[in-house]
Amino acid sequence: MIRKDLLLLFTALTIGFTASAQSPLRRHINFDSNWKFSLGHAGNAERDFNYGLETAFSKSGSANNTCIEPRFNDNTWQDIQLPHDWAVGLPFQYSKKGDLEGKGYKPVGGGFPENSIGWYRKSFDVARADSGNRFVIQLDGVYRDSKVWVNGYYVGSNFSGYTAASYDITDVLQFDKPNVLVVRADATQNEGWFYEGAGIYRHVWLNVFNNLHIASDGGVFVHTSDKGNDATVTIETTVKNDNIAAANATVYTVITNREGKTLAQSKPQPLSLATYESKTLTQALTLTQPQRWSLENPYLYRAVAIVQSNGKTIDSVKVRFGVRTIVMDKDKGLFLNGKNIKVQGVCCHQDHAGVGVALPDYVQYYRIALLKEMGTNAYRTSHNPPTPELLDACDSLGMIVMDEARLLNSGSEYETQLRSLILRDRNHPSIFIWSIGNEEFQTQYTNIGKRIAEHQLIIQKELDPSRTSTYAANMPNVYYGVNQVIPVRGFNYNLGGIDGYHKDHPEQPVIGTEVASTVTTRGVYVKDTINGYVPDYDSTYPAWASTAEIWWKLAAVRPWFMGGFAWTGFDYRGEPTPYSWPNINSHFGIMDVCGFPKNVYYYYQSWWTDKDVLNIAPHWNWSGKEGQPILVWINTNAENVELFLNGKSLGKKDMPVNGHLRWSVNYEPGTLEAVAYKKGKKITSKVETTDVPKRIVLTPSKTTLQPDGEDAVVVNVSVVDSKGRTVPVAGDMIHFSLDGHADIIGVGNGDPSCHEPDKCLPGAWQRSLFNGHAQLIIKAGNKPGAVVLKATGNGLESATLTF
Ligand code: GAL
C-alpha cells in the first residue's frame, strides 16, 4: 500500500522536526504534556467553575473563586496530553438540536451547553536563572474562542479556532515557583459546517528569547527568485527591542544545505532600535545552481537569521525554505520550475479516524504519504488555516498546497486572521497559492464581495508579494463580485460553465478549487438505504457535483484549465451526504476516514501516476448470489484488459484513456482474474472467493517509536482465511491490549454508520472490522523500552507486534 521509502523519509523528518528548530539561545519548549482538563458549562455559571458569577476581569490578576485562580484544586480533573479533542470522545447522539448532522452527531455546540466549554490547566516552572528573557506562550490552535490566563492574569483571547495566538507572559511570571496557565475554550458556536472538534487540538509552546529579538510572528520571511541557473534568496528579518532602553544590534543571515553546511552568508548590518521599536532588514544572497524544490525532490535549504549585540549572538531563528518558481499561465496552466504540471489535487478537512482533529504530527505525514502514493500532487486546506505540521509534511514530501483563509470578510477580526495565516505560512515552499474564501453565497456575487476581496488581496500582496490568490466560487460563467477582481478564477463544481468563462475572460487563469464529489462507501457494492451505504463505484454524486471521471476527462484535455481539487481526499466527520443518521461521516473521500482506499482511488491512481495499476472491484465473496449478475469495474492504465472467471475468458476490451472498464459477470465462486498489457508488459490482478476468517493480521506503518511522548504509529488490522487471503467482508470485533510506555489513542474502521467509540476505556480497546479493515493509532510515551501490541478476536488466531 504505502511505499517504504516514503515512510522512512517521513519517520526521519518527524523526529527531526518535533525537536526545537531554534538555537539554544532561543528555546521553543513543547508544552503538550501534563495538562488537567474538565468540561465547564455554557449555560450554568456554577458548573462553569463560577466563571460568569465571579468577576474575572474587574481587577488585574484576580479571578477569585474560579478555576482561573492559581491555587484552584484541579486534582479531580482529567489528566490529558495535547493535542486533545474532547468532541471525539463524546458518544454519538441523534438530535435535531443544533447542526449535529454537520458535526457528525457529536453533541457539542449551542444545543449542548454541558459539552461545549472546556477548561485546561497546566502548571510549569521557570528558573530564576532565566529571568531577564522574554517568555511567550504560543497556542497553535484551539477550537475555539479561547481565553488565556497566567497566574490569574488575563493575557488574551483568540476568536478563531484555526489561527495561532501568542501571548507575552513575561511580566506575570514567577521564577522558581509554579506558574499556572489556564485556557478556556468555548465551542458553543461553529466556524464551519463540518466536524471541527473541540479543545486545544494543536501544540502549545513556551518560547524563551532575548529582549532584543527577532519578531515572533513571521519575523523571518524568505523568498527566492531565479537569476539564470542561480537563485537570489531574499531574507527579510524583523527585529524588535523589548528592552526598556534603546539598543543596538547587528543582523546577518546564513544559508545552509540540509546537512548544515554553510552555502552563503550576508554581511552584518547594524540596527538601532528605540524601546519597543521594530525594524525590518532585507538581505539578499545568491545560491549557485541550487537544487529546486519539486514534487519529486522537495529539497529544503535553511536560512538562519542571527542577531548580535556587543559582539555576542543573542538570538537566531532558522527557517526551512525551498527554491522554486511558480507560474500560472492563462493559456497553458501551471508551471513549477518551468515544468508544466496539472493540479491533481484533493480538498481535505483536518480529522482522522480515532483522534478527531487532534492528530499526532506523524499522522499528518502518514496522510500526505498516502495521498502521494495515489498520485495526488496538490492539497487544499479546505476551509481553514491548517495545522503547521501539515504544511511541514507537504514541504518535506513534495505536495503543493492551496492555503485557505476561513472566510471572505475584511472586518478587523478576519483581517487579523488573514494576516496571521500569511505571516505564519509564507515561508513554506509547498504553498503555491492562497485562497481567500469558499462559496460565500450571500456575498460572492455582490459589490460587497468585490470590495472585501479587493481588501484581502491587498493584504495578501503586502505580506506576500511572491504569490497570488484564488477564491472558491460555486458559480458557472458568472462575472460579478469576487470574480471581477480575483487573479485566478476558482471553480467549485459548475464545470458546465468553464469553457464559456474561459472564452469570455481569456486573461484570467482558471483552476478547479472543488471538483468531483463521488459518494461511495468502501467495500460496499449494493445500495443500502437502511445503513446509509452508497455503492463503491464512481457513479453516485450530488446534484451540484460530478463523478471523478467526468471532471478529470474535462480537465485533462484543456491546457488552460490548471487542474483541480477533488472533494475530498479522505472521508471526514459530519456532512453525511446523501444520507443522514445513522451516517456520522461523509462519503466523499477517495479514501475512508482511516485512509483505506475505495474503488475510485484506483481511477485516480491509474491516470495520476505511471505505476502499473490494475484493480478489480468488487471482491469475489458473493455467497447467495450464485448465477446473479455482478457489476465488475476495472481501473487500470494498461491499454487493454482480458477478464477470466475460473480460467474462462469473459472477453478482452480496450481501455479508454482516462476511463474505466465494466463487465457484468454472473457470480460463481472462485477466481476472477484480469490480464492486461501496458506497453507490451503483462500485468495481472485477481480477486478470489475466500473462506471464513482464521487469523488476525496487524500491519504497522513502521516498527519503531521514538520515546518522546509525541511520535505515533498507525496500525492497520485485517483478517485472513486458512490460505492467508484477506477476507474482504469480515466484520469481526477485535480487542487490543498494549504493554510498555505507549498508549492507544484511537480506533476506527471507516464505516460511515458505525457508532462504536473512537476512544475506549483503558484496558478495553476494541473495534469491529468494516469490510475487512480497522485501524488503531498508538502514541509513544516518554520512556524507552519495548511496546507490545496484542490483538485478539473470538475464534481467531491472535496477532502480536513489538515496537
Ligand atoms: C461544497 C462545500 C464543501 C462541502 C461540499 C459538500 O459546496 O464547499 O465544504 O460542503 O460542498 O458537497
TrEMBL record:
It comes from the Bacteria. Residues 220-324 form the Glycoside hydrolase family 2 immunoglobulin-like beta-sandwich domain. Residues 696-802 form the Glycoside hydrolase family domain. Residues 330-411, 417-520 form the Glycoside hydrolase family 2 catalytic domain. GO terms for molecular function: hydrolase activity, hydrolyzing O-glycosyl compounds. Keywords: Glycosidase, Hydrolase, Signal. Residues 627-683 form the DUF4982 domain. Residues 114-206 form the Glycosyl hydrolases family 2 sugar binding domain. InterPro entries: Beta-gal/glucu_dom_sf, DUF4982, GalA-like, Galactose-bd-like_sf, GH, GH2_Domain-Containing, Glyco_hydro2_dom5, Glyco_hydro_2. Residues 1-21 form the signal peptide. GO terms for biological process: carbohydrate metabolic process. Pfam families: DUF4982 (PF16355), Glyco_hydro2_C5 (PF18565), Glyco_hydro_2 (PF00703), Glyco_hydro_2_C (PF02836), Glyco_hydro_2_N (PF02837). Belongs to the glycosyl hydrolase 2 family. PANTHER family: BETA-GALACTOSIDASE, BETA-MANNOSIDASE. This is Beta-galactosidase. It comes from Chitinophaga sancti. The lineage of its organism: Bacteria, Pseudomonadati, Bacteroidota, Chitinophagia, Chitinophagales. The gene is galA.
